[in-house]
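Q: Given only this backbone (265 positions), what sequence would you predict?
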């Protein structure tokens, strides 16, 4: 077997170029989805953002168009088969191909384990696990036919480690997403589909403001982050662009912590 030819300097320069690519971001109205959309668009991708409420996507779509890229907002419930398939069909009708999927849709409600309502537990499982799988499955079917694609799931440091903050459901779902990522990567490698996961620590967003402004709770979280701060949404941009680009073509089944060292020890 002969060694492959080395990349040219021009090819190296274009490793992160996403021009002509189409990226779907579920949960695109959220802070992580919004940051991912900005990063991918800045590197040339056209962006599809989804949410249950299409009006929540207007600002994101306008920003993407302001960067000179196409933006397509679509109302979609990623836990519903018909809704998810309709979203994929609409993207294919508009663009004819799907190159990137980032599964940012999910919820993170917390309760003490001994008091966790089962209805709430099941709601979180459905949103985070079923929603991730269904999105990946339906987009994966398109990518299999194409013979290529990049899927990025969103896990969490809570998928590695327990926490006293009421994460019995959320942590369980993210552990499942981590293993789902590895499973899909092994099944779909033969189709040249990369499936990887980003596992962030707690982020500064309005959704976590109550936690991070409570000094006692904040200290619990910060004591577990060697870098000494919570993440910000823009910390997602580099990892998302990398895992969406040709620079990561030989990486699949990885769970990449974006966590300031939280899972290092």
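A: Predicted residues:
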């Amino acid at each position: 077997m002969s060694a492959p030819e080395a990349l040219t300097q021009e090819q190296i320069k274009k490793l992160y170029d996403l021009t002509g690519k189409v990226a779907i971001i579920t949960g695109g109205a959220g802070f992580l989805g919004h940051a991912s959309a900005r990063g991918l668009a800045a590197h040339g991708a056209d962006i599809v953002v989804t949410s249950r409420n299409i009006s929540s996507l207007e600002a994101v779509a306008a920003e993407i168009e302001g960067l000179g890229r196409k933006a397509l907002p679509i109302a979609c419930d990623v836990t519903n088969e018909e809704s998810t398939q309709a979203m994929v069909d609409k993207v294919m009708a508009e663009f004819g191909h799907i190159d990137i999927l980032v599964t940012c849709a999910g919820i993170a409600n917390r309760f003490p384990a001994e008091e966790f309502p089962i209805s709430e537990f099941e709601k979180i499982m459905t949103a985070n696990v079923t929603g991730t799988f269904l999105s990946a499955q339906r987009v994966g079917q398109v990518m299999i036919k194409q013979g290529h694609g990049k899927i990025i799931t969103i896990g969490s440091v809570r998928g590695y480690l327990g926490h006293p903050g009421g994460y019995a459901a959320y942590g369980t779902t993210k552990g499942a997403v981590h293993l789902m990522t590895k499973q899909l990567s092994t099944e779909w490698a033969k189709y040249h589909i990369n499936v990887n996961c980003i596992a962030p620590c707690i982020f500064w967003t309005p959704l976590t403001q109550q936690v991070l402004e409570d000094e006692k709770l904040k200290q619990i979280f910060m004591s577990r982050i060697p870098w000494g701060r919570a993440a910000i949404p823009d910390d997602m941009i580099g990892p998302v662009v990398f895992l969406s680009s040709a620079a990561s073509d030989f990486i699949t089944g990885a769970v990449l912590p974006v966590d300031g060292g939280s899972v290092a020890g």
